[in-house]
Amino acid sequence: MKAVARLLLSCWAAGVACQLHAEPLDGAVSSTAGDETASSWRFGVALGYGERSNPLIQSEPLRVAVDIDIAWFGKRWFFDNGDLGFTLSDTAAGTFNAIARVNSDRVFFGKTNTQIVSVDSQGGQLPEPIPLHVPDRDYAVELGLEWLMDGRWGRLAVAGFHDVSNTHDGFSVDAEFSYPWYGARWTVEPTIMLRYKSAALNDYYWGVRAAEASTALPAYTVGSGLNWQVGARASYYLTSQMRLAVSANYERMNDAAAASPLVRDPTVTAFFAGLAYQF
Asked: Given this model, what pLDDT does residue 249 score?
């Protein structure tokens, strides 16, 4: 069961990077406005090809051919692509939610392998070849609060999360801004995000413990840091339910994590292109 759960979480995290949630056409919006019989479920599927690079050494990228968008919205409770939430306040000033989520950093560690190396971390020759193994990490369940605001100026989301599963015992703070453009049949939405990661969170995933260290993988302690990322998603609607969807994202890891001997590349890029259908 644990292996199945990890597989599902891996697929979820790869798909989340594609950010393909649907934006309805103007006609679709007006046709459901005020309709109390409208379904509280949202379900969509996109078929195509996507890839998310892996910053870890000895790793493979995360590939996705099917991206699923599934959500349910009740009066206060909701589920949105892996996030379980409860709306505490919904006013003209914004929406205030409590959210439970799974930290997605662990997904990178499911795509690594062990290699036999003959050089150390500084490029020096070792007396004899040794196995270099990327240590494993666990998923963490995090609980937090988010504030969502939107207007003609765009959309802003501010959130803070803390580990409640005793996995990394750290926290993160996010701020994301996006500005959508709408045409008769198309939508384009660029996004920029800043994410502060505490030292405990950063060190758990990207640090190297003394027990894990070797001449090829030195011990390393990671401090706190700020990640930033930019991205965009676009859709062209063939019908009110079917669209061509494209997304791309670029993330730069914080300097403390980027300097870890576990990190091969301090950037994470993701893209997806395909045909999406909203049921």
From this structure: 98
